[in-house]
Amino acid sequence: MTLGCGHEGIAAGETCEHLPTQPAGGYIRCFTGKGWHHRLCCMTCRTAEAPSWRDACAACLQKVENEDCWEGIEGQPEVMERASGLTFAHAAVALPGLRADEMIDIRALATAGCWMALDTRGQLWHADFHQQKATLLRARWPEDIGPVEALELHVSADGRFAAIVQCVGSHGVVFDLANDEVSSATMRLARGDYHCDVSPFSIAFFIHEGRTLLVHPTDWNRLDISDPATGELLTPRISPNNGDAHFLDYFHGRLLASPDGHWVAEDGWVWSPTGYPRAWSLREWVTRNPWESEDGQSLQSMPWRAYRWSDPMCWTGAHVLAVWGYGEDDQWMIPAVTLYDVRSGEALRRFAGPETAAAEGTDWRAAIARPGGALVFDQHLFACSERFGISVWDIADGVCLHRDATLKPLRHHAIDHVFLSAQPDGFFRLSRLEGAAP
Fold it and tell me: Which of 247, 313, 246 is nearest to 277 (CA)?
C-alpha cells in the first residue's frame, strides 16, 4: 500500500505532515506513552494543537534522522512492569578492625566471600565476609603523591594486584600483593593535569592468555597496557601531535573490561564538551596494533550526548554492552538502557525506566568522581541509584521485576551474587536477590 510519505511498503513509524518531504531545520521525538512508540515532529507542528500524522517507511525515517537535527524529546516511553516473587534478603556483618563508615572504596575479588577495601587512612585491607575477618595489608597510599581523599580502588580478579588512583586527579599507584612483605609500588601512574578534574581516571585490569595486564592513562588522550608486576610497557608508540595520523582528540573516561578480557569500553568526551561512549578490542590492541585505542579497526563509538559523559555501563555478555541514557543532550536525556553489540556498534534493543541518578543536589563534578549509580548484570540487570534505590530488570523484554527504594548498594560481588552497603554503625550489609521471576 501507499504510505503517507508517498512510498509503497510497510509503515516503520509516523511523522508529521511536513516530514520528510520538506526541510524542517530540526525535529522532536514525541513519545506516546505506549511502549517505545513515538512520532517524529517538525518544529512547526510541535506547537500545533493537533498535528497531522502520517505513516512513513523506514527509508524516510532514516532520511529525517540523517539530514535533520534531533532537537528534543516530548512525552515519555512506557516503563514496563511485571509482578514477580523477587525480593532482597539482607544480612548485617561486622569485620573486626574494618568499619564500613571508615572505608573509601571496596572491590569484589573472584573468590567467594572475599573483597579488598581502602580505608580513610589510605590502607588496604583483605576482607573475608564468610569468615568475618579483615586483614590489614602492608600496601598503602603514598603520602608524597597527595592527601588521602577522593581516591578510588581497583583490583585484579585474583587479588594479586591493587591500584589506588585519584578519581579525578593525575596520579595513581599499583601494588603487587603476592608478597606481603613488599609494600613498595611496582608502578606509579600519571596522566598529566589537562582537564583531569572533569574526567575519571581511566584504569582496568584484565586477563590475557592467563596473564593479568593493566590498562592505564599516560596522557589526557592516551591509554597504554602494561604488566603490573614489572611496569613493562606493552603498547609502545610515539605520541602524535595534533593533525598527525593517529592523533586522538578525546578525553578518556572510566574503563570497563569485558568479563572474558577481550573488549574494553569507556565513556569519555570531546569538545564542546560531548560524551562519546566507545569500545574496542583488547586482544587486537595487545597483540597486533598499539594504535587500537586511537583508531583501530575494532573501535566502535556509540551515540554521542552533549554535555554528558561518564554514565553507567555494564557488560551483559561477552560482547554486549548496556549503556544508560537515551537522548543527545543532557537537558532532555531520559532514563533508559540500550544494549549494543560492540563488534558492530549496532543497537540491539532498548527499554525505558532504569534510574542511576546520584543523590539530590549532587554537583556534576562530584558525580563524575562518584557517579552515585551503576548498572550491574547478574542474570538480571540491576539499576542502582543513590536517589531511587535499586530496580531489577529482565533484559530480554525490558520489564521491571522489582524495586527497593531503601537499598542503595556500593558494590556487587559476582561470585556470591550479593550487593554490599555501608551502614552508619560501622556494619556492612549484604543483600541478595531471592525468589523466582515469572
Answer: 313
Location of C-alpha cell 572504596: 105
Rounded distance between C-alpha atoms, residue 55 and residue 39, angstroms: 9
From the options 3.30.1320.10, 1.20.950.20, 2.130.10.10, 2.60.40.2310, give the CATH code of 87-434: 2.130.10.10
Q: Are residues 163 and 155 in contact, defined by beta-carbon separation less than 8 angstroms?
A: yes
Arithmetic mean of pLDDT, 276-293: 98
Residues 365 and 131: their CA atoms lie apart, in Å, by 38
- Residue spans of the domains in the chain: they are 13-74, 87-434
Q: Which of 389, 401, 406 is nearest to 90 (CA)?
A: 406
Local structure of 214: helix, strand or coil: strand
- Stretch 368-392: mean pLDDT, rounded? 94
Radius of gyration of the chain from its Cα atoms, rounded to whole angstroms: 23
| CA 163/CA 49 separation, integer angstroms | 58
| Residues 6 or more apart whose Cβ sits within 8 Å of residue 313 | 256, 265, 267, 277, 321, 322, 323, 324, 375
DSSP assignment of 127-162, as one string? EETTTTEEEEEEEE--TTT--S-SEEEEE-TTSSEE
- Residues whose CB falls within 8 Å of the CB of residue 144, separated by 6 or more in sequence, listed in order: none
Rounded CA-CA distance 172/164 in Å is: 6
Residue 47's pLDDT is what? 87
Q: Which residue has the higher pLDDT, 180 or 359?
A: 359
Query: 341: which strand partners?
Result: 320, 346
> What percent of the chain has a predicted confidence (pLDDT) above 90?
87
pLDDT value, residue 371: 83
- Cβ-contact 30, 41 below 8 angstroms: yes
The per-residue pLDDT for range 242-256, each reduced to its tens digit, is 999 999 999 999 999
